[in-house]
Amino acid sequence: MLKTQIFLTLVLWAGSAMCNRYLYYSDANGWFKVHKIPLTWQGAFLRCLYEDAILASPFDTELQKAMLAAKQEAGIDSPIFIGTKVMFNSADYLSIEGVPIEDMPVTVPNTNGRKPEDCMSLVREGEVAFTSCTQWLPYICYKENSTQLKYNSDCGTFDQEYHYNSETDSCYKLHKQARDWRQAYGICLAEGGHLVIIDDDKEADVVVKILQGKPRDLNWELSHAGFFDWNKDLLTFRTIHGEKMESVYHKWHLNQPDNKGINIFGGILENGELDEEWSTREAYFVCEKNPKVEVFELPEDQYENEVSTKK
Ligand SMILES: *[C@@H]1O[C@H](CO)[C@@H](O)[C@H](O)[C@H]1NC(C)=O
Fold first, then answer.
1. Whether residue 299 has its Cβ less than 6 Å from ligand 1
2. What stretches in the chain show pLDDT beneath 50?
3. Which of 38, 99, 145, 277 lies at a 20 to 30 A Cα distance from 228?
4. How far apart are alpha carbons 38 and 41 in whole angstroms?
């Protein structure tokens, strides 16, 4: 294909598929992703963290203006959580980056003698509110640009732990912090990928090889994989993308699956055989990512550059 053709395809594709992408705001010197679906403060904090970003705080005027613009563009009328809350002691309201609320270009609200709530939200320019951390509000994740940031152009992310595999034309990341299956599912999603779906024998070999790099400190060898029993009846194992197991790799370990309604989550053993897992057991896992999905908006020339250097 011609370079321009590839580029055009990518632009068209990116325009339609990536509303979900981090968008660049030069005034903010970084990227925003507006999350319209509300979460509690802790939920929002973690989601941003898993996206390798930070729950945004309006700690300078440019950043605040950009946040409000992004909020408006997303059609959000309600306040949004900001990454500023009580840190350990009453009256110490600081952003995640350590900026005190008193140093931000906002008016600290008067509570008329009442104890303020522990978290904060941004209402409009210069106006923040004390807000209960257990409320559910939209929020913005922020990733600051810096000269240290290195783009992983093989995999469409800044995350250097994603590695491209040419046999499967997919990117993979081994997570070496044990999580339960649901958390693993969410973390992969936040990274712009999904919990690994093993399509065939070839991909099983690739994943088994990657899993050889996992720490050896757990008493079980099962790692999470992207399938589960959708109806807890031992009959409804499908991938997390709804595919029938018969249409993907499905070499089960002897007599598995066997634990009806209890072990509903999918996993892969070190020899590549499949087994099931219960909801609270923490294990290592591999996330898979489509290398063509760009998690961050880049200047157009950069995309072109990446496409032309990929092969
Ligand atoms: C991020 O900063 C670097 C270095 O200052 C710059 O070259 C790059 O263009 C910036 N990224 C975007 C998307 O503007």
1. yes
2. 1-2, 4-17, 304-305, 307-311
3. 38
4. 9
